[in-house]
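Worked Example 4.2. Consider the chain below.
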Amino acid sequence: MTEETTETQREQEVDARARDGATRKEESDPAVEPEQGETAITDVGTPQEHASEVTAPREVATFGDPDPPPSREGVKRVLLFLNEVAGGRKLLTACRELSKDGAEYFGVVAPQNLPIVGQLVDVEERRDAAQSRVDVTQSVLREFGIASEGAVMDPDPPLALDDAVRATKPDYILLSCLYETRFGLMRKDLVEWAKARYDRVEHIPVRVDDDAVRWDVNHTLVVATQTVNSKDLVGRLLERAAERPHRYTFICPRSGAITREEIASRLAATLAEMYRHEIDATGQPMSPEPYPAIQNAIEHYRIDEILISTLRGEQSKWLEEGLIEKVQGLTDKPLEHIESSTEPYSAEPEPAAVGAGEAA
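Applying the procedure from the previous section yields the following structure tokens:
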């Protein structure tokens, strides 16, 4: 038997296996004739011709939980569980809808955990960071006429959620966390675990790179503390968003003698103003010193540009320490620096808050 004959036989065997596989595929998945008015798809092409269609991984959902939310009918008691950051616009929208439909009680809790993405708080500050998430979210709800009760829970998310459910007895849970948040040695999925354990759980997705597939949205890291609710900064943020869709991620590093409670209050006021203008924004009111906080954010967040707001001139310790120049040396991302006064932004007030145990 010659080498040429052997090669021919191999080719014939390959062709036969290919035909056999195609036959089995057709039997298990028979072709369907197109309906009237439809066009049959005949241009299959090759992986090289349609590389993006063949090799691209499945995109993770970015605009909401892939599962439809459970029924909200008859909901009276709502638990908000903040696993990562102070709740964003999606969480607020859900709360306003539930309140409008008759929910009477809102409980806001957060575990004393560290953010999964980026070490934005010191280990010893985790309780303060969790309390800040609760304070900011409660303040935002209050801005929109919803009163609530708040608490900080166990560092372990599932234990914290269990404790919160026992304490508040909700009939609806809004679970605000990152996609694929996992816990324990078995790396269980927190969202799936909660849905299997409780009757009505709605996942409010929080992604540090949310809307990553929407290139029309500009992702801006906003670094501000004493000026985070200044009229100059808020005005500039609204102006930028009017020019092009924006998503803002706020970090509020330590600055002077300002207290955690005051930072949370100022940040909440600014987030509420963003939400009034239909602008997506989230925030972290506790961070390390400004430079390492920015380093972490650049490394872990999807950021297009950076905006740093400081006090004017000689009042600013950040300017005195050369923060702007350090950040410019750290990244080539566009950086805008604005100098702001401490005069707060003023907006039209929302209706007075309804009591946490009263009908909305």
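Residues 242 and 322 are 31 Å apart (CA to CA). Confidence is low (pLDDT under 50) at residues 24-64, 182-187, 208-213. Compare this with Example 4.1 before moving on.
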